[in-house]
Amino acid sequence: MFTRFRLPRCIAFVFVLLGVGYIPTRLAIAQQQAPDPEVILILGGSSDRESFAAQLALQQPQLTIWVSSGSPDAANIFRQAGIPSSQLRFDRRATDTVTNFTTTVSDFKRRGIQHVYVVTSDYHMDRASAIATIVLGSQGIAFTPLSVSGEHRQESQLRVLRDVGRSVVWLVTGRTGASLKRRSLTR
Predict the structure, then answer these.
(1) Which range of residues forms the domain containing residue 42?
(2) What region holds the DUF218 domain (predicted)?
(3) Mean pLDDT over each residue of the chain, to the nearest integer
(4) What is the CATH number of the domain that holds 141?
(5) pTM, full prediction
């Protein structure tokens, strides 16, 4: 009976060792190789985030702006700020915070991007950073969080843990669980 439980414990131990060492090592290497962000990633949900990113892009015009599921006014906000359309990438594939990262990470890897600004609201940053650590970090992409002041609310730790779990599932299986949400809505 003792040996029956040893293999799963050994597998779990190896998984924990890899997870604890692998992602932080990849993040450290990416940070060393690309100390300055190369792209601005805006997590959709608020035009305040887009306005903030537009001001940042005016200060750093070499950066491409990736808008992941942005607000309906996003294009107008950037046009009014004088950001050229050639500097913008609109990505409407994401349906939530986890997929903001999982849908864009392969694009970043393909382009050799190793460091990303992550722009989101201050109340949302803990969850976004936790997800970014797993999704971007596992792919060797560092990130610098930039918070936008907004609503004075706080996300529950349960929500953070849920999305960390979904990110780990994505890391292992390539699936985020977002399709389950759509199925439950159609029933």
Answers:
(1) 18-186
(2) 39-148
(3) 87
(4) 3.40.50.620
(5) 0.85
